[in-house]
Amino acid sequence: MIASSHSADKKVYEIARLKNEVKEIRSTFLEGRTKLMRLKMESNVISIMKQKGIKPSVIPPKKIKVTSKN
Amino acid sequence: MAVNEKSILNRLYFISGCMFVFGLAVMLKLFSIQFVDGEKYKALAEKRVVKDVVIPANRGNVYSANGNLLATSIPKYDIRIDALTSSSKNFSECLKPLSDSLAKFTGKTSNYYQRELQKARKNKNRYYLLARNIGYSDYVRIRNFPLLNLGAFKGGLIVEQVEKRERPMGGIAQRTIGYEREDENGNVTRPGIDGAFGVKYLRGVDGKRKMQRIGKGQWKPLSDANEIEPKDGYDIYTTIDVNIQDIAHHALLKQLETYNAEHGCVVVMEVKTGEIRAISNLGRTSKGTYYEKLNYAVGESHEPGSTFKLMALAAALEDKVIDTSDVVDTEKGVLTFYGKKVRDSKWGGYGKISVSEAFEVSSNTGIVKAIHNAYKDKPEKFVDRLYAMNLDDTLQIPIIGEAKPIIPDPRIKNGKWSGIALQWMSYGYGVRLTPLQSLTFYNAIANNGEMVRPRFLKEVKEFGKTIEVFDKEIINNQVCSKETIKKLQQLLKNVVEKKHGTGHRLYSENFSMAGKTGTAQTEYWMEDWTENKRYISSFTGYFPADEPKYSCIVVIHKPDTNVGYYGADVSGPVFKRIAQKIFTDTPLVDEVQMLEVKKASVEKEYEDYYSLAQTYKTIMPNVIGLPAMDAMALLENMDVKLRVKLNGSGTITKQSVEKSVKLKNNQTVVLNAS
Questions:
Q1: What is residue B217's predicted lDDT score, i.e. its pLDDT?
Q2: Residue B182, phi then psi, degrees to nearest 5
Q3: Cis amide leading into B544 (omega within 30)
Q4: Domain extents for chain B?
Q5: Greater confidence, B184 or B533?
Q6: For residue B624, what pLDDT is reported?
Q7: At B38, is the pLDDT very low, low, confident or very high (cuts 50, 70, 90)?
Q8: pLDDT given for residue B225 in this prediction
Q9: Are B419 and B408 in contact (CB under 8 A)?
Q10: pLDDT per residue as tens digits for the range A14-51
Q11: CATH code of domain B244-585
């Protein structure tokens, strides 16, 4: 009875620890994702590439699709 | 004094009597605690170690159409310090390095922190705030600062964690993504998508369970019949496209800054489905910067001005009382009704022009006159036609705060109708629409008459599993006849494509657009209007002109008239930028049939190379005359491992090892090329 109660307590501590870990990992992930999202936004890319003298094209890319007969 | 037995006995009786009474009192009290108040004390004892705990449900995330996070809940930290708990040795030793670290973190000076921390210790401050609302990685950084790394008891570190709603896009589309917030009085504000769908999808259901206190400040669950499992909220996928949103936001921001305008909004909608791809609302602060202040596109109805000429002409064409080729006299640019004047922006008017030209040059007098002639005896017919096109209906979108359209009606006595109401209505005054309502009508024209409801939601999911899918909703199958639509589409196209069109400045030879400019006076009823003119500049339309994919409205309020105020100048560029972005993002696909023509010389070169590679495996071949590229490949793919050094890049002119010489592993061969 006492032993199983203690082992239950132990599990509670373990769960609390793991929960914290999940939270931490999740927030690091989100922070990274937020940063990435801001970096890859077109307006940001445009402003960075402007310093290098590169600007977005005014015409769309051309895709050439080869349809083979066989 | 002689002490006889009796007197001692008497005293003994007295003492023991007292003790007996005392004992009895104790017993009585025990009895009363155990049996009389027993229940009460048992409950009290339980309360100290067992409690009901609410297990909060995780709020769902808001995603964009392509799966980018728009809103989510993440923990944020407030860091405080108990300035008293650390030993004086630790405190004095760590004060300087801690202040240095903090100074580096916040940008304040180290001296400032040294002073503040010493003051906090002197004032016995056990709750001095170091940083508020910081992310996890910053929290980890602060936790490792000197003194704070000693922990809560030795160092005095106090960490408070709260779940905060975070929008990775930052200020972009903030008002539309929205939030749900409750103040101390229980009043809830719910702007945007997050607010509108908070209760239904995002919030989830909080759980409840009994917990018992165990060591280390932890609580252990007790099984109980009343236990309720928390149910996490659903994730919602919006129709917002992050890339278009980004461009729309920045294009609008740039234009607002250039024209120092009061506020503005832009909405991009997919023609066929009514899905909102981007929505941006920016308002000016007192400092002159812009942020997502209010959801103007949804909540602010205003007089649309010239963009309403499309609705007026749609009604007239549908009633067949006007045709685009009819000629109207603009009468030198001024018309007078009941003493009130309608003026053209071009001094002196346009002379006698066709209705379609009047629309293209946005002649107020031309359109007003045409509508006046057609409907002056039966204005209610005009109003009924507008009703039939759903122009007085709200869109019933889930976002809270949509304004109701206003259309004056001669049969309704609410002070909106007057002798000039019809004429004023025909060029967009006296009526009120929100930008989203105007856009919905333009979208219907682009969609060949099918009016679809603007939509913000695509799907509701739980752990990636679809719970609910939202399809397009049709408001009106056909707002007006196909014939009328054709004419209107041509008119909108001409505004940009014809040289005299008000939108011709936006013309691009690469891609096509169709739309209508609007330059409406606003607050003209105020006395100071003549010295401080205020306008609402707008551009509404769609692109590409022939097979519309997206419709878009740009409305900018009160641009600085010294810089400019015409719809084509102020709002047009935002429209064009978005159209351009979408155009350049869609690759042009060219299909070609595979060419199966063989060229003899190429075939022969290949055959020669192949036989050379097959013949020479360990013996040096003659590579003089071969292209350097081929020679390198040949030598590097032999059975022996060679180190090939190449000087130059054309055809090989000299090889360091003669032909037919046996090669060894790791031998170096030098090739010279032209």
A1: 67
A2: -115, 130
A3: yes
A4: 77-163, 244-585, 612-673
A5: B533
A6: 85
A7: confident
A8: 60
A9: no
A10: 988 898 888 888 888 888 888 888 888 888 888 899 99
A11: 3.40.710.10
Separation in Å, CA of B190 to nearest CA in chain A: 24
3-class SS shares of chain B: helix, strand, coil, % to 5: 40, 25, 35
Of the candidates B217, B221, B218, B240, the one whose C-alpha atom is nearest the C-alpha of residue B230 is: B221
Classify the phi-psi angles of B105: left when phi > 0, otherwise alpha if psi is within -120 to 50, otherwise beta.
alpha
Strand ranges inside B123-186, DSSP E = 128-134, 157-166, 181-182
Output the CA angle A46-A51-A54, nearest 5 degrees. 55
Collapse the DSSP code of B129 into the 3-class scheme (helix H, G, I; strand E, B; otherwise coil) and give the result.
Answer: strand
Judged by CB atoms closer than 8 Å, whether chains meet at B168 and A62 is answered as no
pLDDT of the residue at B493: 93
pLDDT band at B2 (very low <50, low <70, confident <90, very high): low
Selected residues 56-75 of chain B with any CB under 8 Å from a CB in chain A: 68-69, 72, 74-75
ipTM, two decimals, is 0.79
Best residue of B74, B222, B577 to probe chain A, by most A CBs closer than 10 Å: B74
pLDDT of residue B275: 94
Q: What average pLDDT does this structure show over B190-194?
A: 85
Contact B588 A30 (CB under 8 A): no
Contact A38 B585 (CB under 8 A): no
CB contacts < 8 A, A to B, total 97
Structural domain spans, chain A: 2-50
Domain boundaries B612-673, corresponding CATH code: 3.30.10.20
Contacts of B246 in chain A (CB under 8 A): 41-43
